[in-house]
Structure formats: C-alpha cells, structure tokens
Amino acid sequence: MTGKLSQQVQDLLSKLVTAADQRGPQAAASFAALFAADAQFIGGGHALHGREEIQASREKTWNGVKSREHTIRGLYQSTENPEQFAFLGSLVVHRADAEDAVSMRICANFDVKQNSGTLEITRYEAFAEPPSTAK
Q1: Cβ density class 9-21: b for 16+ within 10 Å, e for less
Q2: How far is CA 44 from CA 5, 54, 58, 128, 130, in A?
Q3: Most CB contacts within 10 A, which of 31, 49, 59, 75?
Q4: pLDDT tens digits for 40-97?
Q5: Which InterPro entries does the UniProt record give (predicted)?
Q6: Containing domain of residue 62, as a range?
Q7: Rounded to a whole number, what is the distance in angstroms from the first to the last CA of the chain?
Q8: Total domain count for the chain?
C-alpha cells in the first residue's frame, strides 16, 4: 500500500474509534457507514453480515452503558496482504449500574477496500482480554 493509503487507513481507524465511542441518534449509522454494504463483523459475541446488521447491533451497544473510551496503541499492516490490518489498544467502559469502570486490552483484525474513492472495512474481527475493574 502506498503511504497515502496508509494515512487513509489511519483516518478510517480514527473515525471507527470515534464512532464506537459516540452515543446519540446518529451514532450507530455513523459507525455502520464505515463498513462495506456486505461487510462481516465478528466481535462482542456477534457474527454480523452487512451494514444493516452492524447498525442494528450498534443501536443496542449502549444499553446499560454510561460511556466508553477506546484507545489505539498500534496499527499494523499485513506483510502478506496490503489490505489487511490489525490494531492493539484498550477499552474502558463505564456501566450505568456500577461505580467502577471496566477496562480491557483489545485487538482487532480488519480488511479494507476502496469503493468509489472511499476506504471501507470489509471484514472486522475483535478480540478482548477478560475485563478488569478500573478505578
């Protein structure tokens, strides 16, 4: 991948994290818009196919949650396939029914493609360690 596309991937990941941490009427749509129409999303106990399923799932993500904060620690490109990436990071979730936050390290693999000049996620698979309580 060229340096320009690499910057596009960094921008896409930044938009993904921002959308994942947003709540409100358009948050789920903003998140789902980053995925291809036929994208596959695996994570959080879900195996979803297509932008519509991804959006419907995101609409339920905030049930019982006050806030969430994703932090990206590293972004890596596959040496075998220039359209495959992985990131490492962390997630802190403040639940509505608990005083303490839950923190976990996370990582994800994702594939991208260009569609009419826009970079989209075609496959996304998330992994997380068991959560710990963060004070």
Answers
A1: beebbeebbebbb
A2: 28, 12, 11, 9, 12
A3: 31
A4: 999 988 899 999 999 999 999 889 999 999 999 999 999 999 999 999 999 999 999 9
A5: NTF2-like_dom_sf
A6: 3-134
A7: 41
A8: 1
Closest CA to 72 of 103, 108, 23: 108
| CATH value at residue 92 | 3.10.450.50
Residue 105 identity: R
Beta-carbon contacts of residue 112 (< 8 Å; ≥ 6 apart) = 9, 12, 83, 85, 119, 120, 121, 122
Which amino acid is present at 133?
A: T
Distant-in-sequence, close-in-space partners of 20: CB < 8 Å, separation ≥ 6: 31, 68, 70
Label each residue of 97-124 as H, E or C: CCCCEEEEEEEEEEEEEEECCEEEEEEE
Q: Is the confidence at residue 5, as pLDDT, over 60?
A: no
Does the predicted TM-score (pTM) go above 0.85?
A: yes
